[in-house]
UniProtKB/TrEMBL annotation, chain A:
Keyword terms of this UniProt record: DNA-binding, Phosphoprotein, Transcription, Transcription regulation, Two-component regulatory system
DNA-binding stretch(es), residue numbering of this chain: 124-220
A GO cellular component annotation in the UniProt record: protein-DNA complex
A Pfam family recorded for this sequence: Trans_reg_C
Protein name in UniProt: Two-component system, OmpR family, response regulator TctD
UniProtKB/TrEMBL annotation, chain B:
Protein's UniProt name: histidine kinase
Compartments where found: Membrane
PANTHER family linked to this entry: SENSOR HISTIDINE KINASE YKOH, SENSOR PROTEIN QSEC
Record-annotated membrane-spanning stretches: 16-35, 173-196
GO cellular component terms attached to this protein's record: plasma membrane
Annotated keywords: Kinase, Membrane, Phosphoprotein, Transferase, Transmembrane, Transmembrane helix, Two-component regulatory system
Residue ranges occupied by any HAMP domain in the UniProt entry: 190-241
UniProtKB/TrEMBL annotation, chain C:
Signal peptide feature range: 1-23
Keywords, alphabetical: Signal
One Pfam entry name: SBP_bac_11
Transport listed as a keyword: no
GO cellular component: outer membrane-bounded periplasmic space
Keyword Lyase: no
Protein's recorded name: Iron(III) transport system substrate-binding protein
C-alpha cells in the first residue's frame, strides 16, 4: 500500500516511515500542510495518515479541503487527544478513522484494512498462488469457486505466507506479525493458528508445511 | 456539579413594589385627611350658615313697641334648621339682663357679638354638644335703642352623622385609591423588570457551552450589566478553551514522544534476533503502553471532571452512540478475534445527556472488556430498557475475581486478577463519575451465562 | 325656668281639678291586668279610653304578660306631667304634635329604632324619638238640616263667600275651637295661619258672625248634628267619622284647598321604667296599618302614604323645630292676641 504520512515531529515521522516500510508499504512523508498538498497533487495514495497538530495549521483544514474531493484519499487521523472532545468532530469533518498516539502497528494495520474495506477501494491487495487467492482487503480466501471468510489473525498469518511463498518463517517471526507486541503470545498459539489455516486451505492448491526446527512455509500442493 | 451559593438580598420587584405601595399609602392617607377635612369644614360651614341665617331672621323680626322689645318669631327661622337634619334646636332672646323668650338656660356668648358680626361657639348644652350662633341687634329708636342678643343653637348629631358618612366615603375612596395604586405598582414593578426577566431567560435558556455574547434588547440602565456579563463570558470562554487547550497540549506533549519511542521500539524489535533482546523490547513496549494508557485516562479523567461541572444536556440516541463505539472498537476487537455482538433494539433510544462523556464512558467500558477478554471470545453489548436504561457489556474474560466490586470504581484500583493486562484502573472511575453526573450508576456483576463479567451503565429513564 | 312655668300656667287654666300629688288632671284611668304575671306598661295618653281600648286589648293579646295602666289627660297636662314634673310613664301618646316635638327637642324622649319604625315614611317620625301612628285631618262638619239640598262650600274661599253672603243665616250658628283652651285647636289654627291668608279672613268673618267656641270636637259635632250649628270648622276628622257611625244629621267635608293632617304620635319618655314594653307598643302602633279591625274599632286612621297621593290637598303637619315656633311665649301671646282680635269682636 502507498501511504502519505503527514507528521511534523521528525523523529516520530521517521520511525513510522521505517516501521511501515518493514511491512512492505510505500510511504511518503510530508511535514507541513503545504508539503502534503504538493504530495497529493502529484501522487495517488491508498491512505493518508494525518497528524492533526501541525506547525503551519490545523490538520482539520486539510480534512475540510479533502472532503470536497470526489476521489479523495481515505484519512486516518493520528491524534494525541486520547478521548473525549475531539473524536466526534474529527469524524464529522470527514476523517475515516483515528488512532491515538502511541499506537500499535497491528492496530493501525487493522484500522487501515477496515477503512479500505468500508471505502470499497480497489487496491491491488489480492495475491494468488496455485489457483488460491487471498483478498486481504475483504479478508477472504477464494479457491474452487469457494469464498472462505477469514478471521483477523488467520488473515494476517496467511498474508505472511502468501507474500513469500516457499519462504520459511520462524515461529517468533510469525508471532511478531500476528500478535500485537503488547500481547503475551506463546509459540503454542502459532501452532493452533497454523492448524486452523491448514483446515481452511484443505482442498485448495496450497498448503502450509512444517520445516522441522525452522518453522513453516507455504507451498503448492 | 458544584452549586455556587448566592446570597440574594431583597428582590428589586419587592422593593419597588413596597416603595410604590408605600407612596400610594401615604398619598391615600393624605387624600383621606384632605377630603375629610374639606368636607367636614364644608358641612360645618353649612350648619354655621343656616344657624346664622336663622339668628338673622329672628333678629330681623325684632321690633320695638311702646318701649318694649317685641318679637314675632318667624316660623321659617326655626323650621329652616330642620331642613338638613333632625337636630335639636334651642334659642334665646336676651336683653336688659333678662331672657325675653326661649331657653333661659342656653348660655350667652362669652364675647358679646357686635353688630353684623355673629359669634360662633361650640359647647355642651342639655347633654349634647351644640353649635351656637349669637347676633346682636339694637332695637328701638336710635337714642334709646336696646341691644338684643339672639342666640340660636343646634346639636351636632346630624353633623356627626354627615362626618361619619364623609369619613366612610373618604376611607372607601382612599382604600380604593390605595388598592388601585398598589395594583398599578405591582404592574409597574413587573413592567419595569420585564427587560431583566427577558435577559434572564435569554441567558438561562443557553446550554453550558454557549458563551456567545448576549444580544437581547437591553434598556440603557442594564447596558453596563450586560456589557460586564458579555465581557465575563468572553473571559470565561477564553479560560475554558485554555483549559481544553491545556489538556490537549499536555496530551500531545506526553504522547508524541511515547509514540516515537514505541514506533522505534517496534522497528528495533523487528531487527533483533536474540530472544532475550526481543523480550526486553517487548517489556519496554508494554511499559510504554501502560504509561500512555495511564496518561490518557488521567487526561480523560481531567476532561470528564471539567465537563461534568457544566454538564451538557443534549438530545441523544443511545443506540447510535453504542453503534459508533462498537464500530470504532471493532478493529481493536478484531485484533484478538473477538466478536462484538450487538443486542440492540431497532428503534432509537432517546436520552438526554452529555454525548461526548457518554460516548467516552461506553468506549472505556468496551475497551476494558476487550482488554480483559481472551482471544476468540465474544463480547455482548445489550440494552435492557426497564425502569432504568441498562447498557450492559458482557464479556467472557476472567471477571473481577474476588475483588471488592465497589472499590473497583475508586480511582487507581485495579481488579485483583489483571496480571499481565495493561491498564490503569481509572476506566471504571471515569465511567462511574459520568454515570453519577447523569443521575445513574455503574453496575458490576459476574456474567450470568458462564465466565466473565457484566458491566452496565445504568441511566435513569427520561 | 320661664318656659315650664308658662306651661304650668296654661295647664292651670285648663285643669278643672288639680290633685295634691301631681299637677295634672287625670280624666280617665284604667288598669288592664295581664293574664300572666309580668310587667306593667304605663301609658299617658290624650286619646279617650273608648277609642284606645281595642288597641290596648289587641296589644295584650300579643303580649299576654303585660299589664297596661292607661291614663287619659289633656294634651297640655301630658306636657306638664312629663316636662315639668318628670312623671314616670313608659309611653306618651298625644295628638299634640308640637308638644311632642318640644319634648323630643328638649331632651325628654328616648331614641328607638326598629324595623317597624324604619318602615314609617320620613314625615311620620322625628329623631327616632317621635313616631306617628295615625293621620287625622281637620275637617269641616256641616248640618244636614241646615244645608238640605244646598251644596255646602268646598274650600275656604267659598266658605268665606257663603258666610259673607248671608250673615243673618249663620250668625251664632258656626262653631270652631277655642284655641286658648284646646291644644289641637291651637295647632290647627297656627298651621292654618301659616298655610293660607284666607285663615285670618275666615276668623274675621266668623268673629263678626259671633262664632261659638268649643273645647272639644265632640260637642261641636253634637251641636251640628242636632242642627244648633250650621257648620263647625277644624273638627277632628277621625272623631267626626266615629260619631257619624252612631249619629246622623251632619256631613264631613274635606276642604279642597288644603286639609291639615294631624299626626297622633307616641314617644318613650326618658323617665320610662319599662322601656322594652314601650318599644313593643310603638312597634305595634306603627304597624296599625296591618290591623284593619283595630282601625275600624278605634276609628283611628293609620299612617298610609297612599292617602296623600290620592288627595293632594291633604298636608301632614311636618315635624321639626318649626313646630316650636308657636310654642314660643311671645309668639303664642301674639297669635292669641290676633285670634282674639278677630274672633272676639264684641
Amino acid at each position: 500500500m502507498r501511504f502519505l504520512l503527514i507528521e511534523d515531529n521528525p523523529k516520530l515521522a521517521s520511525a513510522i516511515v521505517e516501521r511501515l516500510r518493514l511491512d512492505g508499504h510505500a510511504v511518503d512523508h510530508a511535514d507541513t500542510l503545504d508539503a502534503a498538498h504538493s504530495c497529493l497533487a502529484v501522487a495517488r495514495y491508498d491512505l493518508m495518515l494525518l497528524d492533526i497538530m501541525l506547525p503551519d495549521g490545523d490538520g482539520r483544514a486539510l480534512l475540510e479541503s479533502q472532503r470536497q474531493d470526489t476521489n479523495r484519499c481515505p484519512v486516518i487521523v493520528i491524534t494525541a487527544r486520547s478521548a473525549v472532545s475531539d473524536r466526534v468532530s474529527l469524524l464529522d469533518l470527514g476523517a475515516d478513522d483515528y488512532i491515538t498516539k502511541p499506537f500499535d502497528f497491528s492496530e493501525l494495520e487493522a484500522r487501515c484494512r477496515a477503512v479500505l474495506r468500508r471505502q470499497g477501494r480497489a487496491t491491488d491487495n489480492r495475491i494468488s498462488i496455485a489457483g488460491t487467492t487471498l483478498d486481504s482487503t475483504a479478508g477472504e480466501l477464494l479457491f474452487d469457486g469457494q469464498v472462505i471468510a477469514l478471521r483477523n489473525r488467520e488473515l494476517r498469518l496467511l498474508e505472511v505466507f502468501f507474500k513469500a511463498p516457499g519462504q520459511v518463517f520462524s515461529k517468533s517471526h510469525l508471532i511478531d506479525r500476528m500478535f500485537s507486541l503488547s500481547d503475551e503470545a506463546s509459540e503454542n498459539a502459532i501452532e493452533v493458528y497454523v492448524a486452523r489455516l491448514r483446515k481452511r486451505l484443505d482442498g485448495s492448491g496450497t498448503k502450509i508445511e512444517t520445516v522441522r526446527g525452522l518453522g513453516y512455509r507455504m507451498v503448492a500442493v | 456539579m458544584t452549586a455556587t451559593k448566592m446570597h440574594p438580598t431583597a428582590s428589586i420587584r419587592q422593593n419597588l413594589f413596597y416603595q410604590l405601595a408605600g407612596v400610594a399609602a401615604i398619598l391615600s392617607f393624605a387624600f383621606f385627611l384632605i377630603v375629610r377635612g374639606v368636607a367636614e369644614q364644608a358641612a360645618e360651614m353649612t350648619q354655621d350658615g343656616i344657624l346664622s341665617a336663622s339668628a338673622t331672621a329672628i333678629a330681623d323680626a325684632l321690633r320695638s313697641e311702646g318701649g318694649a322689645v317685641v318679637l314675632d318669631l318667624p316660623y321659617s327661622a326655626l323650621s329652616m334648621l330642620g331642613t338638613l337634619n333632625e337636630d335639636r334646636v334651642f334659642y334665646r332672646i336676651y336683653t336688659d339682663q333678662q331672657t325675653l323668650t326661649g331657653y333661659p338656660d342656653l348660655p350667652l356668648p362669652d364675647e358679646r357679638p357686635r353688630r353684623g358680626e355673629p359669634v360662633f361657639e361650640t359647647h355642651e348644652f342639655r347633654g349634647d354638644e351644640v353649635r351656637a350662633v349669637s347676633v346682636m341687634r339694637p332695637v328701638g329708636a336710635s337714642g334709646a335703642a336696646r341691644n338684643v342678643i339672639v342666640t340660636v343653637a343646634q346639636t351636632r348629631l346630624g353633623l356627626e352623622a354627615t362626618s361619619r358618612t364623609i369619613t366612610t366615603t373618604a376611607t372607601g375612596v382612599a382604600a380604593g385609591f390605595f388598592l388601585a395604586a398598589t395594583g398599578l405598582s405591582l404592574w409597574a414593578a413587573s413592567a419595569a423588570l420585564a427587560p431583566i426577566e427577558r435577559l434572564t431567560s435569554a441567558v438561562a435558556r443557553r446550554g453550558p457551552y454557549d458563551l456567545r455574547p448576549v444580544t437581547a434588547d437591553t434598556p440603557t440602565e442594564l447596558v453596563p450589566l450586560v456589557d460586564a456579563l458579555n465581557s465575563f463570558m468572553t473571559r470565561l470562554r477564553a479560560s475554558l478553551s485554555r483549559t481544553e487547550d491545556f489538556i490537549a497540549e499536555a496530551a500531545h506533549r506526553v504522547r508524541t514522544p511515547l509514540a516515537t519511542v514505541r514506533t522505534q521500539a517496534e522497528v528495533t524489535h523487528r531487527k533483533l534476533n536474540k530472544p532475550e533482546h526481543r523480550l526486553a523490547i517487548r517489556e519496554m513496549i508494554r511499559a510504554i503502553d501502560e504509561s500512555s494508557r495511564s496518561a490518557g485516562q488521567m487526561l480523560d479523567h481531567a476532561m470528564v471532571k471539567f465537563r461534568t461541572d457544566t454538564l451538557a444536556s443534549d438530545q441523544l440516541d443511545m443506540r447510535a452512540l453504542i453503534d459508533e463505539v462498537c464500530d470504532r472498537l471493532g478493529a481493536t476487537a478484531d485484533l484478538k478475534d473477538i466478536d462484538i455482538i450487538r443486542d440492540l433494539p431497532d428503534d432509537p433510544i432517546p436520552i438526554h445527556g452529555d454525548g461526548i462523556l457518554l460516548q467516552a464512558t461506553l468506549q472505556n467500558l468496551l475497551d476494558n472488556a476487550i482488554k480483559y477478554s481472551p482471544e476468540d471470545s465474544r463480547i455482548t453489548v445489550s440494552v435492557t430498557p426497564n425502569d432504568a436504561l441498562w447498557v450492559s457489556i458482557t464479556d467472557e474474560g476472567r471477571g473481577f475475581g474476588d475483588a471488592d466490586l465497589t472499590r473497583l470504581k475508586t480511582r487507581y484500583t485495579r481488579g485483583a486478577n489483571v496480571g499481565d493486562i495493561v491498564g490503569s484502573g481509572l476506566g471504571l472511575t471515569i465511567a462511574d463519575e459520568v454515570a453519577s453526573a447523569h443521575g445513574g450508576r455503574i453496575d458490576i456483576k459476574p456474567n450470568e451465562n458462564g465466565a466473565g463479567a457484566c458491566v452496565s451503565l445504568v441511566l435513569p429513564r427520561e | 325656668m320661664r318656659f315650664p312655668r308658662l306651661a304650668a300656667r296654661i295647664i292651670a287654666a285648663l285643669t278643672l281639678l288639680t290633685t295634691a300629688s301631681h299637677g295634672y288632671e287625670v280624666e280617665q284611668q284604667m288598669h288592664y291586668p295581664s293574664t300572666q304575671d309580668g310587667t306593667v306598661l304605663r301609658i299617658i295618653s290624650t286619646a279617650d279610653l273608648n277609642v284606645f281600648e281595642p288597641i290596648l286589648l289587641a296589644f295584650q293579646d300579643m303580649h299576654p304578660s303585660v299589664a297596661v295602666d292607661y291614663v287619659v289627660v289633656e294634651t297640655a297636662d301630658l306636657m306638664h306631667a312629663i316636662y315639668a314634673e318628670g312623671a314616670s310613664f313608659d309611653l306618651a301618646i298625644s295628638s299634640a304634635m308640637d308638644l311632642q316635638t318640644k319634648l323630643a327637642n328638649d331632651g325628654f324622649a328616648q331614641d328607638y329604632t326598629s324595623p317597624a319604625t324604619q318602615a314609617l315614611p320620613d314625615w311620620a317620625r322625628w329623631r327616632n324619638q317621635v313616631f306617628a301612628f295615625t293621620q287625622e285631618p281637620a275637617v269641616l262638619v256641616v248640618s244636614d238640616d241646615f244645608f238640605g239640598t244646598e251644596h255646602p262650600p268646598t274650600n275656604r274661599d267659598e266658605l268665606i263667600a257663603l258666610l259673607r253672603e248671608s250673615p243673618e243665616r249663620f250668625r251664632g250658628r258656626i262653631g270652631t275651637y277655642d284655641v286658648r283652651r284646646s291644644g289641637f285647636g291651637y295647632l290647627m289654627a297656627t298651621q292654618d295661619s301659616r298655610n293660607s291668608e284666607a285663615y285670618w279672613r275666615l276668623m274675621e268673618v266668623m268673629g263678626r258672625l259671633e262664632a261659638e267656641l268649643y273645647c272639644c270636637s265632640g260637642e261641636m259635632i253634637r251641636d251640628v248634628a242636632s242642627g244648633n250649628l250650621a257648620l263647625a270648622y277644624n273638627v277632628l276628622g277621625s272623631y267626626a267619622t266615629s260619631q257619624l257611625a252612631i249619629t246622623d244629621g251632619f256631613r264631613i267635608i274635606e276642604l279642597s284647598d288644603y286639609v291639615n293632617v294631624m299626626l297622633r304620635t307616641a314617644l318613650i319618655p326618658v323617665t320610662a321604667e319599662n322601656v322594652a314594653d314601650a318599644q313593643a307598643m310603638i312597634d305595634f302602633l306603627t304597624m296599625l296599618e296591618t290591623r284593619p279591625d283595630l282601625i275600624a274599632a278605634s276609628n283611628l286612621p293609620s299612617i298610609a302614604q297612599e292617602t296623600f297621593r290620592a288627595n293632594t290637598a291633604l298636608r301632614p303637619i311636618r315635624f321639626g323645630p318649626g313646630l316650636l315656633v308657636f310654642l314660643d311665649q311671645l309668639k303664642r301671646a301674639a297669635f292669641l292676641r290676633n285670634w282674639e282680635d278677630s274672633l272676639l269682636q264684641n
